[in-house]
Write a structure and sequence with these properties.
Helix content: 40-55%
Strand order of the largest sheet: 9-11-10-12-13-14-15-17-16
Number of strands: 17
Shape: globular
Structural class: alpha/beta
Distance between the termini: 49 Å
Protein backbone atom coordinates (compact mmCIF):
# COMPACT_ATOMS: atom_id res chain seq x y z
CA UNK A 1 0.00 0.00 0.00
CA UNK A 2 1.30 3.50 -0.84
CA UNK A 3 0.32 6.65 1.00
CA UNK A 4 1.34 10.23 0.34
CA UNK A 5 1.06 13.31 2.52
CA UNK A 6 1.47 16.74 0.95
CA UNK A 7 3.42 19.32 2.88
CA UNK A 8 3.02 23.06 3.41
CA UNK A 9 5.03 25.69 1.60
CA UNK A 10 4.40 24.21 -1.83
CA UNK A 11 6.46 21.10 -1.22
CA UNK A 12 5.53 18.10 -3.27
CA UNK A 13 3.87 15.04 -1.80
CA UNK A 14 5.89 13.06 0.72
CA UNK A 15 5.48 9.49 -0.48
CA UNK A 16 5.76 6.46 1.76
CA UNK A 17 5.46 2.96 0.45
CA UNK A 18 5.10 -0.11 2.62
CA UNK A 19 5.21 -3.67 1.44
CA UNK A 20 4.51 -7.05 2.86
CA UNK A 21 1.69 -9.49 2.80
CA UNK A 22 -1.21 -8.89 5.15
CA UNK A 23 -0.19 -11.88 7.24
CA UNK A 24 3.37 -10.60 7.61
CA UNK A 25 2.67 -7.34 9.45
CA UNK A 26 5.66 -7.64 11.77
CA UNK A 27 8.05 -7.51 8.81
CA UNK A 28 6.29 -4.43 7.45
CA UNK A 29 6.34 -2.87 10.89
CA UNK A 30 10.12 -3.25 11.20
CA UNK A 31 10.68 -2.04 7.64
CA UNK A 32 8.66 1.09 8.27
CA UNK A 33 10.55 1.87 11.44
CA UNK A 34 13.89 1.40 9.66
CA UNK A 35 12.70 3.60 6.82
CA UNK A 36 11.38 6.28 9.18
CA UNK A 37 14.62 6.33 11.15
CA UNK A 38 16.88 6.34 8.07
CA UNK A 39 14.94 8.98 6.13
CA UNK A 40 13.80 11.04 9.18
CA UNK A 41 10.27 11.20 7.82
CA UNK A 42 8.70 14.66 7.67
CA UNK A 43 11.43 16.70 9.37
CA UNK A 44 10.60 20.29 10.31
CA UNK A 45 12.43 21.66 7.24
CA UNK A 46 10.67 19.18 4.96
CA UNK A 47 11.43 20.64 1.51
CA UNK A 48 12.13 17.50 -0.42
CA UNK A 49 10.34 14.42 -1.64
CA UNK A 50 11.09 11.29 0.34
CA UNK A 51 10.29 7.95 -1.19
CA UNK A 52 11.16 4.45 -0.11
CA UNK A 53 13.00 1.86 -2.12
CA UNK A 54 10.48 -0.70 -1.00
CA UNK A 55 8.30 -2.26 -3.67
CA UNK A 56 4.76 -1.00 -4.13
CA UNK A 57 1.73 -3.06 -3.27
CA UNK A 58 -1.80 -1.79 -3.77
CA UNK A 59 -2.85 1.70 -4.80
CA UNK A 60 -2.03 5.25 -3.75
CA UNK A 61 -4.24 7.24 -1.40
CA UNK A 62 -3.74 10.97 -1.95
CA UNK A 63 -4.38 13.52 0.76
CA UNK A 64 -4.92 17.29 0.88
CA UNK A 65 -2.14 19.71 1.87
CA UNK A 66 -1.51 20.82 5.40
CA UNK A 67 -2.23 24.31 6.68
CA UNK A 68 0.70 26.80 6.65
CA UNK A 69 3.61 25.18 8.42
CA UNK A 70 4.04 27.69 11.23
CA UNK A 71 0.34 28.19 11.85
CA UNK A 72 -0.76 27.01 15.26
CA UNK A 73 -3.89 25.75 16.92
CA UNK A 74 -7.09 24.29 15.56
CA UNK A 75 -6.37 24.93 11.86
CA UNK A 76 -3.19 22.88 11.98
CA UNK A 77 -4.89 20.18 14.01
CA UNK A 78 -7.73 19.82 11.52
CA UNK A 79 -5.40 19.93 8.52
CA UNK A 80 -3.16 17.19 9.86
CA UNK A 81 -6.23 15.10 10.56
CA UNK A 82 -7.33 15.53 6.96
CA UNK A 83 -3.87 14.57 5.77
CA UNK A 84 -4.30 11.01 6.96
CA UNK A 85 -6.31 8.88 4.52
CA UNK A 86 -9.44 7.37 5.97
CA UNK A 87 -8.17 3.94 4.98
CA UNK A 88 -5.18 4.53 7.20
CA UNK A 89 -7.28 5.71 10.14
CA UNK A 90 -9.55 2.69 9.97
CA UNK A 91 -6.83 0.13 9.36
CA UNK A 92 -5.83 -2.33 12.04
CA UNK A 93 -2.53 -3.10 10.41
CA UNK A 94 0.46 -2.79 12.70
CA UNK A 95 2.56 -1.47 9.86
CA UNK A 96 0.06 1.25 8.99
CA UNK A 97 -0.26 2.19 12.64
CA UNK A 98 3.49 2.76 12.83
CA UNK A 99 3.26 4.84 9.67
CA UNK A 100 0.41 6.92 11.07
CA UNK A 101 2.27 7.52 14.29
CA UNK A 102 5.36 8.63 12.36
CA UNK A 103 3.32 11.03 10.22
CA UNK A 104 1.65 12.60 13.21
CA UNK A 105 4.82 12.93 15.26
CA UNK A 106 6.67 14.62 12.41
CA UNK A 107 3.77 16.52 10.85
CA UNK A 108 3.99 19.42 13.28
CA UNK A 109 7.35 20.32 14.82
CA UNK A 110 7.93 21.28 18.44
CA UNK A 111 7.58 25.01 17.76
CA UNK A 112 4.09 24.40 16.44
CA UNK A 113 3.24 22.53 19.58
CA UNK A 114 3.18 18.99 18.20
CA UNK A 115 3.15 17.26 21.64
CA UNK A 116 -0.22 18.88 22.34
CA UNK A 117 -1.57 18.02 18.89
CA UNK A 118 -0.35 14.44 19.10
CA UNK A 119 -2.18 13.92 22.38
CA UNK A 120 -5.35 15.34 20.82
CA UNK A 121 -5.05 13.01 17.83
CA UNK A 122 -4.68 10.05 20.16
CA UNK A 123 -7.76 11.15 22.11
CA UNK A 124 -9.69 11.45 18.83
CA UNK A 125 -8.69 7.84 18.12
CA UNK A 126 -7.13 8.61 14.73
CA UNK A 127 -4.33 6.18 15.58
CA UNK A 128 -5.70 2.85 16.69
CA UNK A 129 -4.10 0.13 14.61
CA UNK A 130 -2.87 -1.61 17.74
CA UNK A 131 -6.22 -1.99 19.39
CA UNK A 132 -4.87 -3.16 22.75
CA UNK A 133 -1.98 -0.70 22.76
CA UNK A 134 -4.25 2.26 22.19
CA UNK A 135 -6.64 1.42 25.01
CA UNK A 136 -6.70 4.30 27.45
CA UNK A 137 -7.36 3.97 31.17
CA UNK A 138 -7.77 7.23 33.05
CA UNK A 139 -5.86 7.03 36.32
CA UNK A 140 -8.44 8.92 38.32
CA UNK A 141 -6.81 8.70 41.74
CA UNK A 142 -3.60 10.29 40.47
CA UNK A 143 -5.43 12.97 38.49
CA UNK A 144 -7.49 13.83 41.56
CA UNK A 145 -4.34 14.24 43.62
CA UNK A 146 -2.72 16.40 40.95
CA UNK A 147 -5.86 18.51 40.92
CA UNK A 148 -5.61 19.00 44.69
CA UNK A 149 -1.99 20.10 44.26
CA UNK A 150 -2.69 22.35 41.29
CA UNK A 151 -1.32 25.84 41.69
CA UNK A 152 0.63 25.29 44.89
CA UNK A 153 4.13 26.81 44.68
CA UNK A 154 6.00 23.55 45.29
CA UNK A 155 7.55 21.68 42.36
CA UNK A 156 5.54 18.51 41.72
CA UNK A 157 7.73 15.48 40.89
CA UNK A 158 6.25 12.19 39.62
CA UNK A 159 8.47 9.28 40.59
CA UNK A 160 8.28 5.52 40.19
CA UNK A 161 9.70 2.46 38.49
CA UNK A 162 10.23 2.47 34.73
CA UNK A 163 7.08 1.92 32.66
CA UNK A 164 4.78 2.66 35.58
CA UNK A 165 2.93 5.25 33.48
CA UNK A 166 4.41 8.55 34.64
CA UNK A 167 4.70 10.01 31.12
CA UNK A 168 1.13 9.05 30.22
CA UNK A 169 -0.14 10.52 33.46
CA UNK A 170 1.71 13.79 32.82
CA UNK A 171 0.26 13.91 29.31
CA UNK A 172 -3.27 13.33 30.63
CA UNK A 173 -2.84 16.03 33.26
CA UNK A 174 -1.60 18.41 30.56
CA UNK A 175 -4.81 17.80 28.60
CA UNK A 176 -6.90 18.48 31.70
CA UNK A 177 -5.15 21.80 32.32
CA UNK A 178 -5.39 22.82 28.67
CA UNK A 179 -9.14 22.20 28.77
CA UNK A 180 -9.30 24.66 31.67
CA UNK A 181 -7.49 27.38 29.75
CA UNK A 182 -4.00 26.88 31.18
CA UNK A 183 -1.03 27.58 28.93
CA UNK A 184 1.05 24.39 29.10
CA UNK A 185 4.72 24.36 28.14
CA UNK A 186 5.26 20.63 27.60
CA UNK A 187 8.75 19.21 26.93
CA UNK A 188 9.36 15.51 26.35
CA UNK A 189 13.09 14.77 26.42
CA UNK A 190 12.58 11.36 24.81
CA UNK A 191 11.68 13.26 21.63
CA UNK A 192 14.65 14.11 19.44
CA UNK A 193 12.98 17.38 18.43
CA UNK A 194 13.74 18.57 21.97
CA UNK A 195 17.43 17.67 21.77
CA UNK A 196 18.50 21.36 21.61
CA UNK A 197 16.79 21.97 24.95
CA UNK A 198 19.07 19.53 26.79
CA UNK A 199 21.14 22.49 27.94
CA UNK A 200 19.72 24.24 30.93
CA UNK A 201 20.09 27.79 29.54
CA UNK A 202 18.21 26.73 26.39
CA UNK A 203 15.55 25.00 28.50
CA UNK A 204 15.07 28.12 30.62
CA UNK A 205 14.89 30.36 27.55
CA UNK A 206 12.37 28.07 25.84
CA UNK A 207 10.00 28.20 28.79
CA UNK A 208 10.22 32.00 29.02
CA UNK A 209 9.56 32.36 25.28
CA UNK A 210 6.45 30.20 25.50
CA UNK A 211 5.01 31.82 28.62
CA UNK A 212 1.60 33.41 28.07
CA UNK A 213 1.08 36.76 29.78
CA UNK A 214 -2.13 37.13 31.74
CA UNK A 215 -2.80 33.37 31.89
CA UNK A 216 -2.03 30.51 34.21
CA UNK A 217 1.20 28.85 33.04
CA UNK A 218 2.18 25.24 33.69
CA UNK A 219 5.59 23.77 32.89
CA UNK A 220 5.73 20.00 32.32
CA UNK A 221 9.02 18.25 31.61
CA UNK A 222 9.14 14.52 30.95
CA UNK A 223 12.43 12.70 31.69
CA UNK A 224 13.92 15.90 33.08
CA UNK A 225 17.17 14.20 34.12
CA UNK A 226 18.14 14.12 30.42
CA UNK A 227 19.06 17.81 30.78
CA UNK A 228 22.29 18.16 32.81
CA UNK A 229 21.95 20.73 35.61
CA UNK A 230 18.24 21.06 34.88
CA UNK A 231 17.74 22.07 38.51
CA UNK A 232 19.29 25.47 37.74
CA UNK A 233 16.61 26.21 35.16
CA UNK A 234 13.82 24.84 37.36
CA UNK A 235 14.95 26.75 40.45
CA UNK A 236 15.16 29.94 38.41
CA UNK A 237 11.62 29.48 37.07
CA UNK A 238 10.37 28.65 40.55
CA UNK A 239 11.99 31.80 41.97
CA UNK A 240 10.34 33.95 39.32
CA UNK A 241 6.93 32.68 40.40
CA UNK A 242 3.86 32.26 38.23
CA UNK A 243 4.66 28.72 37.07
CA UNK A 244 2.96 25.48 38.07
CA UNK A 245 5.86 23.04 37.59
CA UNK A 246 5.62 19.26 37.04
CA UNK A 247 8.55 16.91 36.42
CA UNK A 248 8.99 13.21 35.76
CA UNK A 249 12.04 10.96 35.94
CA UNK A 250 12.44 7.26 35.18
CA UNK A 251 15.17 6.31 37.60
CA UNK A 252 16.84 7.01 40.90
CA UNK A 253 17.76 10.53 39.90
CA UNK A 254 14.57 12.00 41.30
CA UNK A 255 14.34 10.38 44.71
CA UNK A 256 13.38 12.28 47.82
CA UNK A 257 16.99 12.60 48.97
CA UNK A 258 18.09 13.95 45.61
CA UNK A 259 15.10 16.27 45.42
CA UNK A 260 15.86 17.82 48.79
CA UNK A 261 19.35 18.64 47.53
CA UNK A 262 18.24 19.83 44.09
CA UNK A 263 15.31 21.97 45.15
CA UNK A 264 16.09 22.71 48.83
CA UNK A 265 12.76 21.52 50.13
CA UNK A 266 10.60 23.26 47.54
CA UNK A 267 9.20 20.08 46.04
CA UNK A 268 6.54 17.45 46.66
CA UNK A 269 6.95 13.85 45.50
CA UNK A 270 4.06 12.00 43.87
CA UNK A 271 4.77 8.25 43.74
CA UNK A 272 3.34 6.54 40.65
CA UNK A 273 2.90 2.76 40.72
CA UNK A 274 2.17 0.24 37.96
CA UNK A 275 -1.49 -0.57 37.37
CA UNK A 276 -3.41 -1.62 40.44
CA UNK A 277 -5.79 -4.57 40.27
CA UNK A 278 -8.73 -2.13 40.03
CA UNK A 279 -7.10 -0.49 36.99
CA UNK A 280 -6.30 -3.91 35.53
CA UNK A 281 -10.01 -4.78 35.72
CA UNK A 282 -10.87 -1.61 33.84
CA UNK A 283 -8.37 -2.58 31.16
CA UNK A 284 -9.49 -6.22 31.04
CA UNK A 285 -13.12 -6.26 32.24
CA UNK A 286 -14.01 -9.58 33.85
CA UNK A 287 -17.10 -10.51 35.84
CA UNK A 288 -15.07 -13.14 37.67
CA UNK A 289 -12.71 -11.08 39.83
CA UNK A 290 -11.16 -14.23 41.31
CA UNK A 291 -9.90 -15.54 37.97
CA UNK A 292 -8.86 -12.00 37.01
CA UNK A 293 -6.74 -11.80 40.16
CA UNK A 294 -5.03 -15.06 39.26
CA UNK A 295 -4.15 -13.52 35.88
CA UNK A 296 -3.03 -10.19 37.39
CA UNK A 297 -0.82 -12.01 39.85
CA UNK A 298 1.36 -13.24 36.97
CA UNK A 299 0.89 -10.48 34.41
CA UNK A 300 1.48 -7.64 36.84
CA UNK A 301 0.70 -3.98 36.31
CA UNK A 302 3.16 -2.88 33.60
CA UNK A 303 0.56 -1.89 31.02
CA UNK A 304 3.12 -1.91 28.20
CA UNK A 305 3.14 -5.71 28.40
CA UNK A 306 -0.62 -5.93 27.82
CA UNK A 307 -0.27 -5.45 24.06
CA UNK A 308 1.30 -8.90 23.74
CA UNK A 309 -1.01 -11.88 23.36
CA UNK A 310 1.42 -14.60 24.38
CA UNK A 311 2.83 -15.19 27.86
CA UNK A 312 6.32 -15.59 26.40
CA UNK A 313 6.26 -12.19 24.68
CA UNK A 314 4.77 -10.47 27.73
CA UNK A 315 7.47 -11.93 29.96
CA UNK A 316 10.16 -10.86 27.47
CA UNK A 317 8.90 -7.27 27.63
CA UNK A 318 8.95 -7.22 31.44
CA UNK A 319 12.42 -8.80 31.52
CA UNK A 320 13.63 -6.08 29.17
CA UNK A 321 12.35 -3.41 31.57
CA UNK A 322 14.09 -5.24 34.40
CA UNK A 323 17.36 -5.34 32.45
CA UNK A 324 17.11 -1.65 31.64
CA UNK A 325 16.69 -0.81 35.31
CA UNK A 326 19.71 -2.86 36.30
CA UNK A 327 22.03 -1.81 33.48
CA UNK A 328 21.09 1.78 32.63
CA UNK A 329 19.62 3.07 35.88
CA UNK A 330 22.07 1.41 38.22
CA UNK A 331 25.21 -0.21 36.76
CA UNK A 332 25.94 2.61 34.31
CA UNK A 333 24.79 5.48 36.50
CA UNK A 334 26.66 4.43 39.62
CA UNK A 335 29.47 2.67 37.71
CA UNK A 336 29.01 -0.46 39.77
CA UNK A 337 31.99 -2.79 39.81
CA UNK A 338 30.01 -5.96 40.56
CA UNK A 339 26.91 -6.11 38.30
CA UNK A 340 26.61 -9.87 38.86
CA UNK A 341 26.13 -9.27 42.58
CA UNK A 342 23.42 -6.70 41.83
CA UNK A 343 21.55 -9.11 39.56
CA UNK A 344 21.69 -12.02 42.01
CA UNK A 345 20.65 -9.71 44.85
CA UNK A 346 17.59 -8.56 42.89
CA UNK A 347 16.65 -12.14 42.09
CA UNK A 348 17.18 -13.18 45.70
CA UNK A 349 14.88 -10.41 46.97
CA UNK A 350 12.20 -11.37 44.45
CA UNK A 351 12.47 -15.01 45.49
CA UNK A 352 12.17 -14.17 49.20
CA UNK A 353 9.67 -11.31 49.22
CA UNK A 354 8.11 -10.60 52.61
CA UNK A 355 11.03 -12.16 54.50
CA UNK A 356 13.00 -10.12 57.02
CA UNK A 357 16.47 -9.31 55.78
CA UNK A 358 19.46 -7.02 56.28
CA UNK A 359 22.81 -6.51 54.51
CA UNK A 360 24.64 -9.12 56.61
CA UNK A 361 22.00 -11.79 56.12
CA UNK A 362 21.81 -11.01 52.42
CA UNK A 363 25.58 -11.30 51.92
CA UNK A 364 25.58 -14.65 53.73
CA UNK A 365 22.78 -15.99 51.52
CA UNK A 366 24.55 -14.84 48.36
CA UNK A 367 27.80 -16.44 49.53
CA UNK A 368 25.98 -19.75 49.99
CA UNK A 369 25.00 -19.47 46.31
CA UNK A 370 28.66 -18.94 45.31
CA UNK A 371 28.23 -15.15 44.89
CA UNK A 372 31.10 -13.61 46.83
CA UNK A 373 30.33 -10.26 48.42
CA UNK A 374 30.26 -8.55 51.82
CA UNK A 375 27.69 -6.75 53.93
CA UNK A 376 28.96 -3.30 52.85
CA UNK A 377 28.46 -4.02 49.15
CA UNK A 378 25.15 -5.79 49.84
CA UNK A 379 23.91 -2.78 51.83
CA UNK A 380 24.90 -0.32 49.11
CA UNK A 381 23.28 -2.44 46.39
CA UNK A 382 20.08 -2.75 48.43
CA UNK A 383 19.94 1.04 48.49
CA UNK A 384 20.43 1.20 44.72
CA UNK A 385 17.56 -1.22 44.10
CA UNK A 386 15.34 0.90 46.32
CA UNK A 387 16.49 4.04 44.52
CA UNK A 388 15.36 2.58 41.20
CA UNK A 389 11.92 1.86 42.72
CA UNK A 390 12.37 -1.82 41.91
CA UNK A 391 11.80 -2.69 45.58
CA UNK A 392 10.07 -0.95 48.47
CA UNK A 393 11.22 -1.55 52.05
CA UNK A 394 8.93 -1.93 55.07
CA UNK A 395 10.57 -1.04 58.38
CA UNK A 396 9.64 -2.82 61.61
CA UNK A 397 7.55 -1.07 64.25
CA UNK A 398 7.33 -2.14 67.88
CA UNK A 399 3.63 -1.73 68.68
CA UNK A 400 4.08 -2.12 72.44
CA UNK A 401 7.12 0.16 72.74
CA UNK A 402 5.84 2.52 70.03
CA UNK A 403 9.23 2.78 68.32
CA UNK A 404 10.83 1.84 65.05
CA UNK A 405 13.31 -1.04 64.87
CA UNK A 406 16.38 -0.73 62.68
CA UNK A 407 17.70 -4.30 62.80
CA UNK A 408 15.87 -5.78 59.80
CA UNK A 409 13.22 -4.90 57.26
CA UNK A 410 11.15 -6.56 54.58
CA UNK A 411 11.42 -5.90 50.86
CA UNK A 412 8.53 -6.02 48.39
CA UNK A 413 8.93 -5.91 44.61
CA UNK A 414 7.27 -2.95 42.90
CA UNK A 415 5.33 -5.25 40.57
CA UNK A 416 4.87 -9.01 40.76
CA UNK A 417 5.17 -9.16 36.98
CA UNK A 418 8.93 -8.73 37.48
CA UNK A 419 9.05 -11.74 39.76
CA UNK A 420 7.35 -14.14 37.40
CA UNK A 421 9.03 -12.79 34.25
CA UNK A 422 12.51 -13.16 35.75
CA UNK A 423 12.13 -16.22 37.99
CA UNK A 424 9.31 -18.07 36.27
CA UNK A 425 6.60 -19.80 38.28
CA UNK A 426 8.83 -21.75 40.58
CA UNK A 427 8.13 -21.30 44.27
CA UNK A 428 4.89 -19.40 43.66
CA UNK A 429 4.34 -18.96 47.43
CA UNK A 430 0.91 -17.37 47.10
CA UNK A 431 0.82 -16.20 50.71
CA UNK A 432 3.84 -13.93 50.27
CA UNK A 433 2.66 -12.86 46.81
CA UNK A 434 -0.68 -11.75 48.30
CA UNK A 435 1.22 -9.93 51.03
CA UNK A 436 3.16 -8.08 48.31
CA UNK A 437 -0.10 -7.07 46.62
CA UNK A 438 -1.61 -5.75 49.86
CA UNK A 439 1.55 -3.82 50.72
CA UNK A 440 1.59 -2.05 47.34
CA UNK A 441 -2.12 -1.32 47.51
CA UNK A 442 -1.75 0.30 50.92
CA UNK A 443 1.04 2.47 49.50
CA UNK A 444 -1.20 3.43 46.58
CA UNK A 445 -3.90 4.47 49.01
CA UNK A 446 -1.51 6.85 50.72
CA UNK A 447 -0.51 4.88 53.81
CA UNK A 448 2.92 4.64 55.36
CA UNK A 449 3.33 0.89 55.89
CA UNK A 450 5.37 -0.90 58.57
CA UNK A 451 5.82 -4.46 59.75
CA UNK A 452 4.36 -4.74 63.23
CA UNK A 453 6.02 -6.47 66.19
CA UNK A 454 4.11 -7.19 69.40
CA UNK A 455 6.33 -9.04 71.88
CA UNK A 456 7.03 -12.35 70.08
CA UNK A 457 4.21 -11.96 67.54
CA UNK A 458 4.30 -10.31 64.14
CA UNK A 459 1.54 -8.28 62.51
CA UNK A 460 1.99 -8.16 58.77
CA UNK A 461 1.24 -4.47 58.37
CA UNK A 462 0.71 -1.38 60.48
CA UNK A 463 -0.71 1.19 58.04
CA UNK A 464 -0.67 4.87 59.03
CA UNK A 465 -2.27 7.76 57.14
CA UNK A 466 -2.50 11.07 58.97
CA UNK A 467 -4.19 10.37 62.29
CA UNK A 468 -5.58 7.08 60.97
CA UNK A 469 -4.05 3.71 61.80
CA UNK A 470 -5.05 0.16 60.93
CA UNK A 471 -3.61 -3.31 61.47
CA UNK A 472 -3.67 -5.89 58.69
CA UNK A 473 -2.90 -9.60 58.50
CA UNK A 474 -2.62 -11.25 55.06
CA UNK A 475 -3.28 -14.93 54.44
CA UNK A 476 -3.66 -17.31 51.52
CA UNK A 477 -6.33 -19.68 52.83
CA UNK A 478 -8.65 -19.26 55.83
CA UNK A 479 -10.76 -22.36 55.19
CA UNK A 480 -9.60 -24.14 58.34
CA UNK A 481 -10.64 -22.90 61.81
CA UNK A 482 -7.10 -23.32 63.12
CA UNK A 483 -5.75 -21.02 60.40
CA UNK A 484 -8.39 -18.42 61.16
CA UNK A 485 -7.55 -18.41 64.86
CA UNK A 486 -3.82 -18.22 64.13
CA UNK A 487 -4.29 -15.13 61.96
CA UNK A 488 -6.74 -13.41 64.28
CA UNK A 489 -4.80 -14.02 67.52
CA UNK A 490 -2.06 -11.39 66.99
CA UNK A 491 -4.68 -8.76 66.18
CA UNK A 492 -6.73 -9.58 69.27
CA UNK A 493 -3.59 -9.11 71.38
CA UNK A 494 -3.37 -5.43 70.36
CA UNK A 495 -5.06 -3.38 73.08
CA UNK A 496 -6.12 -0.28 71.21
CA UNK A 497 -9.23 0.72 69.30
CA UNK A 498 -7.80 1.05 65.80
CA UNK A 499 -9.41 -1.04 63.03
CA UNK A 500 -8.08 -4.55 62.48
CA UNK A 501 -8.56 -6.86 59.50
CA UNK A 502 -7.47 -10.13 57.95
CA UNK A 503 -7.29 -10.01 54.14
CA UNK A 504 -7.32 -13.43 52.45
CA UNK A 505 -8.66 -15.36 49.45
CA UNK A 506 -11.95 -16.11 51.19
CA UNK A 507 -14.02 -15.82 47.97
CA UNK A 508 -16.99 -14.67 50.02
CA UNK A 509 -18.47 -11.50 51.44
CA UNK A 510 -16.83 -9.68 54.31
CA UNK A 511 -17.70 -10.96 57.79
CA UNK A 512 -16.73 -10.32 61.41
CA UNK A 513 -14.75 -12.55 63.77
CA UNK A 514 -14.49 -11.24 67.34
CA UNK A 515 -14.40 -7.66 66.08
CA UNK A 516 -11.86 -8.44 63.35
CA UNK A 517 -12.97 -7.81 59.76
CA UNK A 518 -12.37 -10.80 57.46
CA UNK A 519 -12.06 -9.43 53.92
CA UNK A 520 -11.73 -11.15 50.56
CA UNK A 521 -8.50 -10.13 48.85
CA UNK A 522 -9.86 -9.89 45.30
CA UNK A 523 -12.86 -7.81 46.35
CA UNK A 524 -10.72 -5.49 48.47
CA UNK A 525 -8.20 -4.91 45.67
CA UNK A 526 -10.94 -4.43 43.06
CA UNK A 527 -12.73 -1.80 45.17
CA UNK A 528 -9.74 0.57 45.26
CA UNK A 529 -9.75 3.33 47.85
Amino acid sequence: MEYSVCHAGGARGMVFRTTGRQEDETTSNRALWRFAEERQCLPSSCHRVVSSSLSVVGQTARSPPLAPWRERGTAVEKSVALAVPSALRSSRSIARTVLATTLFRKAVDSKAGYPVLLRRFQKLNFIHGLKTAMKKIERTAYLNRLNRLRGIPDIKVLTGVRRAGKSSLLSDWSSVLESKGTNVVYIDFTDLDNEPLKEYHALHRHVLEHTAAGRENAVMIDEVQECPQFERAINSLHSRGGYDIYLTGSNAFLLSGDLATLFTGRQIEIPVFPFSFAEYLRYFPDDDVQSALDSYLVRGGLAGSYVYDGDQDRAAYVREVFETILVRDLVQKYRLAEPTVLRHLAEYLMDTIANLTNPHRTSVQLAQNKIATNHVTAGAYLDYLRNAFLFYPAKRYDIHGKKYLATSEKYYVSDLGFRYAVLGRRNMDYGHAYENLVFLELLRRGYDVYVGKLHTREIDFVAVRGGEKRYVQVCDDLSGPETLQREVAPLLAIRDGYPKAVIARTRQKEYDCNGIRIIDLAGWLAAGD
